[in-house]
Q: What sequence folds into this?
């Protein structure tokens, strides 16, 4: 069992706010802050040689740690600046089954997934090219979940790809992605999973999941900051991956400076493009190392306890939630019904509680180091605002050592 009290000391921000927004921006750990200072120091002290002494090896360690986080074999993970770019690379590069152009996406998925294939939508005709996709959204009956059967029912002989998220960002529903991958494969389609909302809080094993591609990043539960997205492609597919957006660092030997020929890297580096924003990766690597040391299974356990209690408090207060009750089908997010969520978010911020708002909802995603006392006090304020209008009750915030 991790020493949560000691770990909490890693996150100075948690002394200033009750932090219920870890699924959006994880707080900066002390070691991440130190790593960012080291980035400036390495750059300033070495100049150009820093690429070979420090930066390229650091990027390789980053890819390796991503592999550890995802249970991915060596050479199957690559760096991307954002999940949107990672998805865009896969939208043009995945070797989809020929003669098919339908992409299935969940109705509750994050918008950027839809955008990747909507921007490549054609006339829905029979062209087997990667352009001209027909996009179909799998509906959610209850606005909270989509059972794997709903995907399975819509997968047919025209389906090239099922692309969906591991955990829905507005409801916190954790999908059975293995069942979705099985259904896709049984019909000859591929399956891509966006795990941005599960990286660092739900144990991931892309091999057991049997997805063909996976995207994620360090911004949220990994506390690694922006610019630290990544992707995985199943090793046997990699030789056939040919992204249309590429760059010299996707080639086998970038320093050969070959212009008139494109020889892809043999491993997942062929999914990368140009010079990386290395400063980000100092913080990203620090976050990855921290989360792997703590253990993702322990983080998930703690988040289950915290979200159990949030749901209990909402039930007691008669506040409607949109998050499944079953522990196995959720992790760190609970969303609450609210007609003026942005106003609630602002008032809570003024009272020392950081939450997020989405249309019609307040979203709570407690950091795993939030204490039981903080959770209770934060919920007093959240529920006070939701039940008694927008004047928060006059409870004073306790101090946390
Ligand atoms: C599940 C999911 N996918 C993708 C994104 C967008 O990622 P990016 O801004 O890195 O493109 C988000 C952002 O919160 C998300 O929650």
A:
């Amino acid at each position: 069992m991790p020493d949560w009290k000691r770990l909490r000391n890693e996150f100075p921000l948690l002394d200033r706010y009750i932090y219920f927004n870890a699924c959006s921006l994880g707080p900066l750990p002390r070691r991440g802050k130190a790593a960012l200072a080291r980035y400036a120091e390495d750059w300033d002290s070495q100049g150009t040689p820093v690429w070979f002494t420090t930066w390229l090896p650091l990027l390789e360690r980053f890819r390796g740690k991503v592999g550890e986080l995802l249970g991915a074999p060596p050479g199957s993970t690559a760096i991307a600046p954002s999940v949107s770019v990672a998805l865009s690379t896969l939208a043009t590069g995945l070797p989809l089954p020929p003669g098919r152009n339908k992409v299935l996406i969940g109705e509750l998925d994050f918008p950027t997934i839809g955008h990747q294939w909507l921007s490549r939508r054609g006339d829905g005709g029979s062209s087997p090219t990667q352009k001209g996709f027909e996009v179909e959204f799998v509906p959610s009956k209850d606005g909270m979940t989509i059972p794997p059967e709903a995907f399975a029912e819509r997968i047919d002989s025209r389906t090239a790809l099922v692309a969906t998220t591991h955990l829905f960002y507005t409801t916190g529903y954790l999908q059975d992605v293995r069942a979705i991958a099985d259904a896709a494969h049984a019909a000859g389609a591929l399956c891509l999973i966006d795990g941005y909302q599960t990286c660092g809080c739900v144990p991931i094993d892309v091999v057991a999941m049997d997805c063909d591609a996976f995207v994620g990043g360090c911004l949220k539960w990994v506390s690694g900051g922006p610019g630290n997205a990544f992707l995985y492609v199943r090793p046997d597919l990699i030789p056939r991956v040919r992204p249309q957006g590429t760059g010299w660092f996707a080639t086998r030997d970038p320093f050969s400076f070959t212009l008139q020929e494109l020889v892809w890297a043999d491993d997942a580096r062929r999914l990368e493009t140009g010079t990386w924003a290395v400063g980000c990766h100092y913080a990203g690597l620090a976050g990855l190392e921290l989360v792997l040391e703590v253990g993702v299974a322990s983080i998930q356990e703690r988040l289950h306890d915290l979200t159990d209690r949030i749901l209990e408090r909402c039930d007691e207060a008669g506040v409607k939630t949109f998050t499944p009750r079953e522990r196995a089908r959720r992790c760190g997010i609970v969303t609450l019904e609210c007609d003026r969520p942005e106003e609630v978010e602002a008032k809570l911020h003024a009272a020392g509680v950081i939450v997020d708002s989405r249309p019609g909802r307040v979203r709570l995603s407690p950091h795993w180091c939030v204490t039981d006392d903080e959770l209770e006090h934060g919920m007093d304020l959240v529920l006070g605002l939701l039940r008694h209008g927008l004047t928060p009750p006059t409870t004073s915030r306790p101090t946390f050592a």
Confidence is low (pLDDT under 50) at residues 124-130, 395-401. The radius of gyration is 22 Å. The longest strand covers residues 159-165. Residues 82-84, 110, 112, 165, 169, 194, 196-197, 217, 229 surround pyridoxal-5'-phosphate (CB under 6 Å).
